[in-house]
Structure formats: structure tokens, C-alpha cells
Amino acid sequence: METLSRFLIFMSLFSGLVSGFALQNLPIQSFEEGYTQLFGDKNLFVHKDGKSVRLTLDERTGSGFVSNDLYLHGFFSASIKLPSDYSAGVVVAFYMSNGDMYEKNHDEIDFEFLGNIRGKEWRIQTNIYGNGSTHLGREERSNLWFDPTEDFHQYSILWSESHIIFFVDNIPIREVKRTESMGGDFPSKPMSLYTTIWDGSKWATNGGKYGVNYKYAPYIARFSNLVLHGCAVDPIEQFPRCDEGAAEDIRAAQEITPSQRSKMGVYRRKHMTYSYCYDRTRYKIALPECVVNPAEAQRLRVYDPVTFGGVPRRHRSGKRRSKRSRVDETESI
Fold first, then answer.
1. Residue 331 buriedness (CB in 10 A; 0-12 / 13-18 / 19+)
2. For the chain, where are the alpha helices, taking DSSP H only?
3. Which residues form a coiled coil (predicted)?
4. Cα-based distances in Å from 170 to 3, 51, 157, 263, 300
């Protein structure tokens, strides 16, 4: 297992170099310069290095933080180590949203990690919303090829004018291409980056069959290598500031190499357990951007129906507003 993990890391870095976009070269911001606590009081702890953060969920509250700036496109990443042991009902979210600014027509790009009962794997759920299209969930769920509670792994979101790509250790696991048929459903307004841990007992594990058991609390999620690399937007003028380096990196990151695309295909065949494109209970006709693969549709029929929830909406504090206003390894996956 250790040899395989080292090989995966090597191949992930190699893929980044081939595409002209190397994650390890991106600037890592300290918590103070890049983020503000969102909620949770003492359940958020910043380590002495100023760049590592611990979020806790206990009987009192969850916790979370949010970027100081809004962004219109960029590459956003964090190394995350998830809570171990019994974690049913626990949700760790790494996502972009503008729900506090556009309550009726918000955009969102989600990485959600769904806990499980002892002996069962954590699962990843990805989703996007554009222009308040919450009635059209575009969820996908999958498992991982490693135990995300044993060590840190890098989870990343690439958002450009034409693409959204979700990465795990620099391996793309999902690509959303903007199509004319999607219209305003593709996220297009400035968003903040959020990171939270919270109680999703009503839906996160087996449709709410297993909830959070606070006998096992506190639940601790750890974060490091926090990357905010994009086009920051002035909150007053709503005009993005995007230097040429960031713009070039965004363009490079959206170009998936043949090697990365091969790994993505293997990952989806081996680990994806749900896609909205094949859910005929929710959608009698697949949404227009879906490219239906009959073999994939047949394989996904064996999985039980899923229940969905949403990231809790929390308004930013006045303090935060004032701060912002200051100007051939793939087959092993």
C-alpha cells in the first residue's frame, strides 16, 4: 500500500508537469491573509505555522471558514485529512458559493465528503449550481482508492469560463464543460471559497438511516496547503483582478492531458457510484449536457437510490464584510 501511494503521488506530480500546470508551485496562503472564521468559536483552531487549520464538530456546533476575497474563476485547493472511526452523518465540505449575495439565484461548486458507519468508506459528492438552479441537482458520488482518514490528500477545484474540473491528488475525477444548453446553470458569478464541518444526519449516510453519534465526538477534520489562485473580485466594483500568471495557470489547468483523461476514465469506472445523468427517478429525460454511456448506466443501476441534502447557509458577519472591503498507474486506482 505504501509503495502504491508513493507511485500515485509521483504520477500525480508528473501529470501536473506534463500539462504545464504544477500544483506544487502555487503559493500557499496563511490563514490570516486568506481566510476568516465563519462559525464555530473555539471549534476552529489555527496551528502555529499559520497555514494549517483544524475544524471540529461536537455536540455544540460544527465550524468553518471562508475566503476573504470573492473570485471569478481560479484554482482552489486544500490538503485534507478526514475524521476516522465512526463518522456517519458527518459532512465535511470544501466548496464555492455566493449564496449570501444572491439568495435567489446563487451559484455553487461543491466537494462534499460524506461520513459512514465503522468499516465503511467515506464517499465524495460533487455538485454544481448556477443561477439558483437548485431544483436541478447535478450530483455525482464516488468512493476513493485510499483511506482519507490515514493521511492528507489534495482536493482541488478548477473553475474557468468554460470548464469545472474536480481533482483528487491532481487526478481529475469529474469534468463539467459549459454547453449552450446549460444556459445560466453553469456558475458564472463571483464566489467565495468555504470550508466547513457540520451535522448532516438527515441525509448524508444511507439517506439519513445513520446519523451523527456524538459518543464518538469530537470529529476533527484537518486542512493544510490552502491554495487560492484565481481572479479576485473587488466587492464594490465587481471587477476581477487577474494577473497574467493566474490567467495562464487557469488556462493550463483546464487542459486535461491524455494521461489524466485515462486516469479519470479508470477512476469513474471503478469508483463512481451515482451520477445524475442516469437517475431516471429524478429526471425522466437526462439533462441536456449529459453524454449518456449505456455501459455506465447499466453499471450504476446496482446502487441504491440516494438522498440529497444541502450545505447549511450561514450569513457572513459584519466583521468579515469589513475585512473584505479593505481594499500505467491508472489501473491501480
1. exposed
2. 2-18, 31-34, 244-253, 258-271, 294-300, 318-325
3. none
4. 18, 21, 10, 10, 25
Report the alpha-carbon distance of residue 63 to residue 54 in Å, rounded: 9
How far CA 113 is from CA of 142, 209, 282, in Å, comes to 10, 17, 22
Looking at the predicted structure, is the pLDDT value of residue 235 above 80? no
Q: For the segment 279-300, what is each residue's pLDDT rounded down to a tens digit?
A: 988 899 999 889 888 888 888 9
Query: Residues 263, 333: contact at Cβ < 8 Å?
Result: yes
DSSP secondary structure string for all residues of 27-48 = PPPPHHHHEEEEE-GGGEEE-T
Chain mean position to CA 152: 15
DSSP 245: H
Cα distances (Å, whole numbers) of residue 79 to 27, 68, 154: 14, 19, 4
Task: Tell me how long the chain is.
Answer: 333
**Is 309 or 252 the better-scoring residue by pLDDT?**
252
pLDDT tens-digit map of 24-35: 678 899 999 999
User: Could you write out the DSSP letters of every residue in 99-165?
Assistant: TTT-SSS--EEEEEEE--STTS--EEEEEEE-TT-TTS---EEE--SS-TTTS-EEEEEEE-SSEEE
Q: Which one, of 300, 278, 299, lies nearest residue 290 by Cα?
A: 278
Give the pLDDT confidence score for residue 7 in this predicted structure: 36
The sign of the dihedral angle between the CA atoms of 328, 291, 187, 305 is: negative
Sign of the four-CA dihedral 194, 197, 202, 207 = positive
pLDDT tens track for 63-89 = 999 999 999 999 999 999 999 999 999
Predicted pLDDT of residue 247: 77
Active site residues: 108, 112
**Rounded Cα distance, 160 and 74, in Å:** 6
Question: Residue 199 in contact with residue 213, Cβ under 8 Å?
Answer: no
Distance between CA atoms of 65 and 47, rounded to whole angstroms?
A: 14
Kindly tell me the burial class for residue 284, based on how many C-beta atoms sit within 10 Å of its own C-beta (0-12, 13-18, 19 or more): exposed
